[in-house]
Amino acid sequence: MKLISQLRTSTFQLALLYMVVFATSVFLLLAFIYWRTAGFMAAQTDETIEAEIAGLAEQYRGRGINGLITIIRERVAREPNAKSLYLVTTEDYMKLAGNLTAWPEGSQSQSGWINFTLDDRVGWVGQPRLARARIFEVQGGLRLLVGRDIDDLAALKRVIEIAINWGMGITLGLALLGGFMISRSTTRRIEVINNTSRKIMNGHLSQRIPTRGTGDDFDQLAENLNQMLDRIVYLMEGIRHVSDSIAHDLRTPLTRLRNQLENTLMSVDNDEAREQAGRAVAEADQLLATFNALLRIARLETRGNTADMQPVSLGVLASDACELYEAVAEDKSQSFEQALDNEAVIEGDRDLLFQMVSNLIDNAIKYTPEHGDIRVAVYGRDGNTVFEVSDSGIGIPDEEKENVFQRFYRVGKSRSLPGNGLGLSLVSAVAEIHQGTIELSDRNPGAEQPGLTVRVVLPTYQPGSRRLKSAPARPEPEGAAGSGDTSSPLSRQQA
After folding, report:
1. How many domains does the chain have?
2. What is the Cα–Cα distance from 309 to 488, expressed in whole angstroms?
3. How many CA atoms lie less than 13 Å away from 193 in the CB half-sphere?
4. Residue 142 to residue 146: CA distance in whole angstroms
5. How far apart are CA 312 and CA 430, in angstroms?
6. 14 — phi, psi (to 5°)?
7. 97 and 222 together in one domain
8. pLDDT digits (tens, 9 = 90+) for 318-336
9. What are phi and psi of 438, to 5 degrees?
10. Hey, what's the torsion of the CAs at 209, 212, 217, 218, to 10 degrees?
11. Does 114 reside within a domain?
12. FRET partner for 45 with CA separation of 20 to 30 A, picked from 51, 102, 231, 490?
């Protein structure tokens, strides 16, 4: 699988393109060498045959046909194993002289040239050989063939062709190997950048991309990215400092204001004044809850997956949350069904997971009308553990499902209900810390009340693959928050 991914890299594809261009260049070069070499040797053979023909023609003009036959017989007798081939026959192909036993078979060109297999030469014993000759018609209907044995030339051509094929094969092999090695080296450095980037995205902001000190393009890219990360961390530290300052400067006065309003509520006798003071206390509670939720989300997003990870039974945790909210559901006459697998164990921060589970259950109760039904389930799926909350409430339109995890975003149907739109942002931050994903779907698609099914898919705990064990201080244990409310059901009942 790793090899396949290596072959899909742009670096390897670029190396492959270079290999094709390089191999084409080598092929054209070798083809030119072959054409020049083989063509030169073939032309030299034809020139030798033409020279033989010119000499015999001169003898024929001076001594006639009998002199020509005599010359051919003398040459054959003097060099019986020579490369030169001669044959003189009558019109009906009866041999008169030469070192061929019979007229060869082959396709003759218009200029009289013929290529044939030489297996009937006088005194020849062995494998058939290739030959090339030219044919003439002589006075009196006689036929004359003058040629040469070109088997050595053909063998040399075969050697050159084999060398070209091997050369092309070796060239392609070396180019492919070189492309793979270059791609592998480049991919390793890119993978280092990708791995470091993933760690940074998971919250390890102290990570930096290593450099080799070579000053090449990758080192320059790494240095620029590291400087950018330093700048981002500096800006985030500034934001965190502002948040801490707000927490120090505003939370205490807001709490005092809320307490003074509550004291006023307890001391006034006028019903109208008591009602106004009660609304002011509720507004102060909402403001404090919003403020605390914002700080909690910011801390979760900046610390990444550095939570206190321990094996947690998600089914048992969900059961505890359901027990807390059953009374709230009963107040609205809602059915509350549970299907919890207590054997489903994940690795996570119990407090953060409890906040996430509570937020989703609280949302389901809040946005489901009276006499509706809610189902909470924990089960395994494809090696993961799924926490699912399904309700018969107002649902979320498809075009808004991607936006509900943004801070302060509220679906149009829910704007009339109390809340601040931070609950699902907190759920998203907790899921991301635990390397989970969130799925939203309609429970009853097409219905007037489509309902909503929320699934949080988390990696199942695998012994021996523990993540980080220690963590900075957890956020304040405020009550679980829904997407429109950040206070717990108990605090609402007390209010």
Report:
1. 3
2. 24
3. 17
4. 13
5. 14
6. -65, -40
7. no
8. 999 999 888 888 988 998 8
9. -120, 135
10. -30
11. yes
12. 102
C-beta separation of 66 from 138 below 8 A: no
Q: Which residues of 446-470 are buried (b: 16+ CB within 10 A; e: fewer)?
A: eeeebbbbbbbbbbbbeeeeeeeee
Do residues 44 and 148 touch, judged by C-beta distance below 8 A? Answer: no
Cβ atoms of residues 18 and 180 within 8 Å: no
- Tell whether 187 is covered by a domain: no
- Looking at residue 279, which CATH number applies to its domain? 1.10.287.130
Clarify whether residues 296 and 334 are in a common domain.
Answer: no
Q: How many CB atoms lie within 10 A of CB 440?
A: 17
- Residue 86: which H helix or E strand, with range? strand 84-89
In whole angstroms, give the CA distance from residue 352 to residue 429: 10
Question: pTM, whole model, 2 decimals?
Answer: 0.46
If one counts every other C-beta atom within 10 angstroms of the C-beta of residue 383, the result is 8
Based on the domain organization, do 255 and 337 belong to the same domain? no
Domain that holds residue 93: 2-154
* CB of 484 closer than 8 Å to CB of 289: no
Among 422, 488, 427, 481, CA closest to 458 = 427
How, if at all, do strands 335-340 and 373-381 pair?
Answer: parallel
Same structural domain, 227 and 364: no
CA distances to 98, 185, 215, 404 from 77, rounded to whole Å, are 9, 71, 80, 106
Question: Is residue 237 located within the same domain as residue 315?
Answer: no
What is the amino acid identity at position 118? L
Q: Which amino acid is at 18?
A: Y
136-175 as b/e: b if 16+ CB within 10 A: eebeeebbbbbbbbbbebbeebeebeeebeeeeeebbeeb
Instruction: Say how many CA atoms lie within 13 Å of 401 toward its Cβ.
Output: 14
Residue-wise DSSP of 196-229: HHHHHHTT-TT------SS-SHHHHHHHHHHHHH
Any idea what the CATH number is for the domain that residue 425 is in?
3.30.565.10
pLDDT > 70 fraction of the chain, expressed in percent and rounded = 79
- For residue 39, how far is the Cα from the chain centroid? 50
Q: Is residue 57 part of a domain?
A: yes
Judge whether 340 and 323 are in contact, CB under 8 Å: no
Q: How would you list the strands of the sheet with 84-89, edge to edge?
A: 95-98, 84-89, 142-149, 129-138, 113-118
How far is 348 from 434, CA to CA, in rounded Å? Answer: 6
**Domain assignment present for 175:** no
Give the residue from 448, 232, 482, 181 showing the smallest Cα distance to 357.
Answer: 482
| Whether residues 226 and 87 fall in one domain | no
Kindly report the CATH number assigned to the domain that includes residue 9: 3.30.450
The answer to whether residue 470 scores a pLDDT higher than 70 is no
Residues in the chain: 495
